[in-house]
Write a structure and sequence with these properties.
Blueprint: H1 2-9, H2 17-27, H3 52-77, H4 81-89, H5 96-102, H6 118-133, H7 140-156
Length: 158
């Protein structure tokens, strides 16, 4: 799981560094929801709504988009869905996102529309991208994930 990889890079004496920093910066934010027109001051403490939950929503959204895209490609090639599920779920690159959201969707088709919680995942990713925007930080993969969800939704409707 990618969260384990993140923990490997945190200092051993501060395993909760991300959550601590997010809560410190949230507590100093008096205008977190107000849009700003001036560039951020690099010497001040940033104000934002980003939490560890925001990061989790980004990771789930991006993983879901990449998995659905890859699995749709396998479907396009005619690869058996059960076989692909077994290969991915038993591979070293397997993730909890794949296990949690894709376990029962194989017969529905490998798209975001086959995931019961799709609207929640997309909504949380959209909100997370907005929250991160307050830091003036681009989320290229997050934005691409939203585009992939939109592409799949329009493909399903045709």
């Amino acid at each position: 799981d990618d969260c384990v990889l993140v923990r490997l890079y945190l200092p051993p004496d501060h395993p909760d560094l991300v959550a601590t920093q997010a809560s410190l910066s949230n507590s100093t934010s008096s205008s977190a929801n107000k849009p700003t027109t001036s560039p951020p001051n690099p010497t001040s403490t940033p104000t934002h709504n980003v939490t560890h939950g925001t990061i989790q929503d980004i990771m789930i959204g991006v993983h879901t988009a990449t998995i659905t895209e890859a699995m749709r490609f396998c479907e396009h090639l005619g690869v058996d869905k059960t076989l692909m599920y077994d290969i991915v779920s038993n591979a070293a690159g397997n993730s909890k996102v794949f296990e949690n959201y894709f376990r029962g969707m194989g017969m529905e088709g490998w798209s975001v529309e086959g995931i019961e919680e799709a609207d929640v995942i997309v909504g949380r990713l959209e909100k997370a991208i907005q929250d991160v925007y307050s830091l003036r930080y681009p989320l290229y993969l997050g934005s691409a994930a939203l585009q992939e969800f939109d592409r799949q939704k329009h493909e399903e409707g045709t």
